[in-house]
Design goal:
Blueprint: E1 5-13, H1 18-29, E2 33-36, E3 40-46, H2 47-50, H3 56-64, E4 75-83, H4 88-95, E5 99-101, E6 105-108, E7 119-122, H5 135-146, E8 154-157, H6 163-170, E9 176-180, H7 183-195, E10 201-205, E11 216-222, H8 225-238, E12 239-251, H9 255-263, E13 267-275, E14 278-285
Parallel strand pairs: 6-7, 8-9, 8-11, 9-10, 11-12
Antiparallel strand pairs: 1-3, 1-4, 2-3, 5-6, 12-14, 13-14
Helix pairs in contact: 8-9
């Protein structure tokens, strides 16, 4: 039976950084797909997830758990409507064009023709985030293309479609852990790793608590500002001396906050890319 979806149209003021925070919290609450708009975001959730057995009390509780909706810092309102049953794969296929990054890496769907590049990545995103079209993923690809990850143990935190873990393996990294708290992302990353013949990627469903006792030489985290500020101390603890941390999912104005928490954890700024007010930063661990 095809699930029925509800579409929640959120109007957000100011847009940054509230929209990114809202998307993150909605994802934790069970919303599965998001479309950013000029005034905010449209979020989709299965009706049965929002109203199991047609009980509205559950959803009221779910919305109360979304902290940003209770915040005085932002003005957020929303309307909801039931969405006609659609073929979600068909929808993204209509709107997913192949991309190329620095003439070296192509990201395409299985139905696109292969291009003559060094790294040809095939992604079927479904409802997962990370096709290379968003500025943050695009810039993280640029960082990875510049970075020597040969034989380096690597973590892709908040892996989405698994695209960054896949590129890391294509560039010689191993072993690679890919972690995402969202079940759609977990399943999609497993599928995309298999599709790209990756043999060194292990995908986990969960959060930073899974990192206890782990050590990496490269950590990639494309999430959002608040989650990064919370989890960077854990990343630093897991990062070997002279290890590299690549982070994105935040705006230019947030660099100072991210750099401050990194410096407190012996992670020092190396450089960044900027794209439409989004940034992706590179830090190196230098123990005193």
């Amino acid at each position: 039976m095809t699930p029925i979806y509800l579409g929640y149209t959120f109007t957000v003021q100011p847009l940054a950084p509230a929209t990114e925070i809202l998307i993150a919290e909605l994802g934790y609450a069970g919303f599965e797909s998001f479309t950013e708009t000029a005034t905010g975001v449209i979020a989709y959730i299965q009706k049965e997830e929002a109203f199991p057995n047609n009980t509205p009390v559950h959803f009221e509780s779910l919305l109360n758990d979304i902290q940003i909706l209770q915040s005085d810092e932002f003005e957020i309102s929303y309307t909801a409507e039931e969405i006609e049953q659609v073929n979600w794969n068909e929808q993204w296929e209509k709107n997913f064009d192949p991309i190329e990054v620095d003439g070296r890496c192509a990201v395409r769907a299985p139905f696109h023709e292969k291009t003559d590049v060094e790294f040809d990545i095939i992604i079927e995103p479904k409802m997962s985030f990370g096709t290379g079209h968003h500025e943050t993923t695009h810039m993280m690809i640029k960082h990875l293309l510049k970075l020597d990850v040969t034989n380096k143990k690597t973590l892709d935190m908040g892996c989405g479609t698994g695209i960054l873990a896949i590129l890391a393996e294509m560039k010689g990294a191993h072993p690679i852990d890919a972690i995402d708290i969202d079940n759609w992302c977990y399943l999609n990353s497993v599928e995309n790793a298999e599709r790209n013949n990756c043999h060194h990627i292990t995908v986990y469903e969960g959060d930073a608590s899974l990192l206890k006792g782990k050590e990496y030489e490269v950590i990639i985290a494309n999430i959002n500002r608040n989650i990064l500020l919370q989890d960077i101390p854990m990343y630093a603890h897991c990062l070997s001396s002279n290890g590299i941390l690549l982070v994105s999912g935040f705006y230019i104005d947030d660099i100072a906050l991210i750099t401050e928490i990194c410096n407190e954890n012996e992670l020092y700024f190396v450089g960044n890319y900027e794209r439409n007010n989004w940034v992706a930063c590179k830090f190196e661990k230098r123990e005193s």
